[in-house]
Amino acid sequence: MKIALLSGALKNAGDYLITKRCKEILEYGFDQPDIKTYIRNKPLGSDEVTEINQADCIVIGGGPCYKKDLYPQSLPLVGDLKDLTPRIFMLGCGWYGGTTSSKDVWSYKFSDTSRVLLNRVEKDSGVFGCRDYYAVKVLKGNGYDKSLMTGCPAWYDLEKIQKRLPDCKEIREIAVSDPADIRHYGDQSLELCKYLVTRFPDAGFHYFFHRGTKSDQYTSQNVVSMIEKISKQLKELGFQVHDISYGVEGFSLYDTCDLHIGHRVHAHIYNLSQRRRSILIEEDSRGAGVNEPLGLWGIKAYDKKRKARADIVSRAYGSVIDGITVNPYVVNDVAALLDYCEQDGYSIFNQAFSQMEFYFDNMKKYTDHMRSVLEG
To answer: Distance between terminal CA atoms of the chain?
Structure first.
């Protein structure tokens, strides 16, 4: 079985984790598949199209793919989808909305060109693979009724599906992950770090930048200036600072930690997949899409948003004025959740791990469905 896997991994460590776990799931679901990865964020070259057309199927793996500008803006692929001849499947893909309000979910509409790709996937696969229930709802609101909630491929370390937390251990090392939108939530993250240092005075502290600390084609110098300012204060607080961009290997640095708290969805996912305690501060629908089906508390980074998309901004004299009001009570929320977890014996996480195991069964159902379609 030859599989062409379309990956969104360019810089963000989380995208590399998705790609790695997608390959592992496909290797688990198929008998010794031949998987080749292609970058989906740019148009496919003629040689790539020739190679892909020799595959048995195309898999769009994870990421926020159920979006109004999916094709050809986010996934340029080819000018005419008829030029791609294998069946196309979407494995554990999600929706990206700035909030999870009913209005934002049910009023969300795909562009006509995006529907061309989604219609092709519907015809080829019969079922959309969804990483969360918001994706299921958005698809349904656009007339696509056949979907299966599998969780994100990154949820699953295949060797640890049945593992649970051992008896509560002392928290000696703490990891904090950076906000995706550091412009709005950088100061909030710093306040969280200051609180953690006072609550856990004997612990070691690590801070992770998933998209790096240097400017390049994916990160502006303005953002890097903020990162440098934050990094200086973190080091004064006693944090070790880690840049884990451009690969998946940096996630192993989390393995020395007993607790993760932070804004990065895939830091949260990775630590849960390793059966560690993790608390996510939700910047948008992606975080809520993880926490809600797993029964974990949701802590919002924002108080209010006037726009559904957090990355649509306007600037005046260098100031962001797009109407996001930062939640001033995040530290209170984190403190209350930590209190609850300590009283609960952290069983909330074992309940979440049981839910992850349940959704892994759905993931297996989806790969079984893929196999039956391709063999049928």
So the answer is: 14
Helix (H) or strand (E) holding 311, with range, is: none
Helix, strand, or coil (residue 259): strand
User: Counting every residue, how long is the chain?
Assistant: 376
Which tens digit of pLDDT belongs to each residue from 132-153?
Answer: 999 999 999 999 999 999 999 9
Residue ranges of alpha helices (H) inside 181-280 are 182-199, 221-237, 265-273
3-state secondary structure of 269: helix
Q: Residue 148 is encoded by which pair of tokens?
A: 């299966």
Helix orientation angle between 265-273 and 13-29, rounded to the nearest 10 degrees: 40
Two tokens, residue 156: 């699953």
Range 82-85 contact pairs with CB under 8 angstroms and sequence separation of 24 or more: 83/49, 84/49, 84/52, 84/53, 84/58, 85/53
More confident residue, 243 or 322: 243
Which neighbouring-strand residues pair with 93?
130
**251-308: pLDDT as tens digits:** 999 999 999 999 999 999 999 999 999 999 999 999 999 999 999 999 999 998 865 4
How far is residue 103's CA from residue 264's CA, in Å, rounded to a whole number?
25
Q: How far apart are CA 13 and CA 324, in angstroms?
A: 26
Q: Is the pLDDT of residue 315 over 60?
A: no
Residue bearing tokens 């950088």: 186
Distance CA 268, CA 289 (A): 12
Which residue in 265, 267, 248 sits closest to 257, CA to CA? 267
The owner of tokens 């899409």 is 289
Among 132, 148, 143, 64, which Cα is nearest to 106's?
143
Q: Which two tokens stand for residue 129?
A: 């693979």
| pLDDT at residue number 360 | 98
**Token output for 110:** 């795909």
Q: pLDDT per residue over 23-32, tens digit each?
A: 999 999 999 9
* Cβ neighbours for 148, distance < 8 A, ≥ 6 positions apart: 127, 128, 129, 130, 362, 365, 366, 369
DSSP letter at 37 equals: E
Q: What is residue 319's predicted lDDT score, i.e. its pLDDT?
A: 40
Q: Going by C-beta distance under 8 Å and a sequence separation of 6 or more, which residues neighbour residue 253?
A: 175, 206, 208, 242, 244
- Look at residue 282 and give its three-state secondary structure: strand
